Structures are given as structure tokens and as C-alpha cells.
Fold Amine oxidase.
Amino acid sequence: MASLHPLTALTEDEIVQASSLIRAILGEKTNLRFKGISLHEPSKREVLKYREHSQPLPRKAWVNYYVTGTPLFYESIVNLSSSTIESNKQVPTHFHGPCDDEEITRAEEIVLADPRVQAEIEKLELPKGATVVCDPWICNQPDSNHYAFPLSVCPVLDTVTMKVTRIEYLPTGAGWEIKPPQPVRAIEPNEYIPELNTLRKDLKPLRVIQPEGASFTVSGDVVRWQKWEFRLTFNYREGMVLHEVSYDKRPLFYRVSLSDMTVPYADPRAPFHKKQAFDLGDTGAGLTANDLRLGCDCLGSIYYKDGLIANEEGHPKWKRNAICIHEQDAGLLWKHTNYRTNRAAVVRNRELVLQSIITVSNYEYILAFVLNQAGELTYEARATGILSTQPIDEGVSVPWGTVVHDGVLAVYHQHILSLRIDPELDGDVNNRLIYEEAHAIPYDPKLNPHGNAYTTNKSVIQISGGYDLDSKKSRVFMIENAHKQNPVNGKNVAYKIQVPPFQPLLASSESFHYKRADFADHAIYVSKHPSAILPATSSSVGDGHELFAGGQYTNQNRLTTGVRKWAGRKDDISDTDIVVWVQFGLQHIPRVEDFPVMPAEIIRVSLKPVNFFTKNPAIDVPPSTRTR
């Protein structure tokens, strides 16, 4: 059998092999709970050597697991090629593994079955036939919107013993005071399920038809479309990952992925002050991926790609149809009308979309890589789903939230995402990050006699660290290859990072929100690539590969373990292998229109060529007609 490409995700057999080898060293009678089994990627240097010599590299698995019923949490590197354990280290006790599906379901069942919880629910005197739903933070209709009926009871569960340790009560007024449980008052439902609503009837069908099929091809992990070629893989934490991205056979990016996401909430009262989700680190974009065949999530001629992860027993688990690949029309790409001849040249913008949708409890995130015919790569996130709600007394308002329904408070919060970009522009791993600003040229009777002139200033970032946008200077960050120049103007080839306005984390630097969100205080971080620091054969665990902006373990973590630490090394990055971390997100001040389900909020980060090509790379796209 031909050897697998070094970046190919683990196979079913490899997942079984990895979990079996771990069980063998601990004994079959030791009960384990696996939290993640995925490819332990070879270093970038090793992969670059593989490209030159095609010598197979050892296949390795990264494994996280608990000894069931104990707080003992381990991280291992398993060499699948030699069937050996390269490392098996206990993770420090202040770190915790992510939640998994079965654990969350079991926690809900245990909480609702607990006699103390049932006694508290009795005090609320709920309507006859009401169903109580437990919403773990890490109704008469099964799909009824329980977020429209938040209760003031908050049980705390120990996930080691799987027992309720205490019951907390939530403040429901304007202050910090806790009231004893009282009978709930009748509240009108606020539903989102179609059959529970009256639907509009004036909508005509809109169909996307591609009679000759799509213009892309998929061969294993390799996707080819127009002049693009890349590898598309899937893992339990990041979900989709792009590797070895090239355009017209010119390398652009070695690896691109959504690295992390944090959602800190603004209510300062206990226990709400702890409310901060890390949707990738606490659960996983792969673990929570939807089956996209279940709805109208993608249109046109669609290719569905399954994702493979491991379940809590260490067995392979398929996430069917976790990625959909399709083309879409995005309006005009370019146009010009010669007004003298009335001749119009028109090219429509066809995009290739790689989409995955995750459901993290109440929220949905529609995550997509979008590529176009002008050599541009965009990462798009759409936030939808249901607001995380809490109870509030009638007639009460608070300065950190919005009442979106009778008795329902939606607290202000931020969605801060981090996109990790590992560049290799035009085939060189030694790149640099620069920023360019537009500045007015001072009035000068000779140089600028009319005061209208302005120019740009370019600054090369010499030291790793965190950097910010500045709209008043039109500051734009670019990844640049100083060893390759454009033949037209002699400028260094580059890709600019187009980021929407970003408000960094608002929580105080003394808060745990800040200390845990190791990436949320700057729009841009740049760090030296670990392959340029660590030995190429390093079997470092945890943050050895420096893949996750918030660090390897975000669940209840109180320490700085991510990109703020790595960039804080103050490495010389003026011309070396770098990693660029782009933060973007939403400042979500909920409105009534966001309930019961919020219309999608869209945010995009685009990577666009700057002096990379000799002309508009989409100039050769055939002109559009009504039939094409």
C-alpha cells in the first residue's frame, strides 16, 4: 500500500491502533476516557524535506485521555509506524480536558435526577407538564425554545465523580442579591421551529442549478479548483484545516486554520462572572460539526466530505457530511464599460466555498473558507443560533444586558476568533510581517503646494509581539517575501490581511477573562515558527507545535499558555519562518431582533495579493453571459 502523505488525517485503523497502544501500557482493566486522538503533525521542516525527497515520515498520533473516575489527565505521542509510545505525560492538574458529547448528555441526566435539584425545581411551581432542560456550561415540544424560559437554579457538577456538589442561585434583579426560589409566573413562549410559527406565503422558489456539475475536483484530501490547489483535512478541535495552499503552482500558505475562539460575558455578578466559552478548546469545531445533508446548508452541485474523530472510548467516529464544498455566485468580480463604444466587459465572481457548521449548545457558527478567481482567500464566520439567556425579574433592566423577551435577559458579550496563518509566499518559508500606513505629505510650496498629496510609509516588524489596527492611518498588515520581487515594479511580493474593525477584549487585564484569553487583546500577533526554534524531530507535547492561540487547554484554565506567551519571547522575526495570528470578531450587544434565533452576523478576514501577480489574475476568466 502506498504511504500516506504526512499531513493526511488519521485513518480508522490508526485511531484504533493509538488507543490500543495506550490501553496496553495501562492495562486493559484500567478504564480510560479519551478526549482526543488526532494526527501529531510532523514539523514544517520535516514536511519540506519530504517534498524534496518523498521519503515517508513516521505516522504519529496525539492522544489525550483521563483515567476514568480520577482527575488524572494525560497527553501522549504515539508512533504508529513503530507501534511505540514516544511520550506519555500527566498534564498538570490546573488543566482540564474538553467536554465530549456523552459527558455532556450524562451530566444533564445526573443533574435532573438529583433529589436536591428536583426539590429546588418543585419550589418553582412550574406549569403542569412542563419539561425542565439542563443547559451545561462548560417544555411540551422536544424542539421548544427553552432559552425563552430560563430558571434561577444553577447546580454545580463534579465531572470526576459525576455528582452534584452544590446548588447555586442566580441573581434575577438589578443587583447582587439572591432571592429564595419562588413560583415562576406564566410567560408566553417564543418559538423558532417552523411548525410553531405562522410562515409567510409570498416566497417564490429560488434554485441554484449547475447542469454540467461543478468546476472543482476532489482526490482524497487534495482539492483543485481553477488555479487553486490545497489539502483539506479535518480534526476534532479545529475542524477544517487548509495545508499547502497554492495558486497557479505558486505556494502561498503552508497551513491555515481557525485556531481559537472565546466568548466572554459582561455580567459581573456571581456565578455569571465566570461565564466565558472557548468553543474550540472547550469542545471542538470537529466534535460539534453538523451533518450538512440534514438542511439546506449548501446549494448547487455539492461535494460532501466526512470528518473522522475518536469517541470517548477511543474508537473511530465519523462526522458524516461535516464539510460541504460548492461554488457560489458572489456578484461581479470586475467590469468596465467603454462609454465611447458602449461595449461592456463583465466577469462574475465565482467562489469556491468550503463550509462547516458547528453547534455549541445555543450558538451556531457557520465557518467557511472562500476562494475566488482573483487569488484571494477569505475566512468567513457567521454567528447565528440562540442567545445564551438568564432570568430577570419583571420590569428590571441592567447596564450589561438587554431584555429580549419577558423574563429573559441576554447579556452583552464578545465573540473573538483567532485565525492562524502559516505562510510560505512564493515557496520561501522565510517571510516577514510589515504594516503600511497612509500619511499626508506636509504642505510645501514646491513638493505639495496644494496640500493634497499623501504617501505611504512601510514598517517592518522586527520583534515578535502583539500589534493593533489604526483606521486613522489606514494601517494594513502584509505578509511579505523580501527575496522575491514583482517584475513590473520591483516591489516585494506580498499578501495583505484585510481585517474588519476589531475591539479587543474589554475585560480588565486583572480579570480571569483576560488571563484565559491569551490572544484577545490585539488584532495581530506574530510569533516565530516553532520549527525555527525547536528541533525538527521534537516530540514536545502541549503547546510544542503552537497551534492554538489560547493554548492547548482552555477548559477552566487560569494561566497564560498561548500566543501571548509565544510572541512574548521577543524573537527576531525580521526575515524568518513566522506565524501570523489574526483576531477578529463581534461586539454583541443583543437586541430584541436577535431572539428567538438571531439573524446571522457575518465577519470576514481576507488575504489578498499585493504586487504578487503581474496583472489582475482574474483577467483570464471568461466573460459572463446569461447562460454561464
Summary: Confidence is low (pLDDT under 50) at residues 536-541. The longest helix spans residues 12-26. The first strand starts at residue 32 and ends at 39.
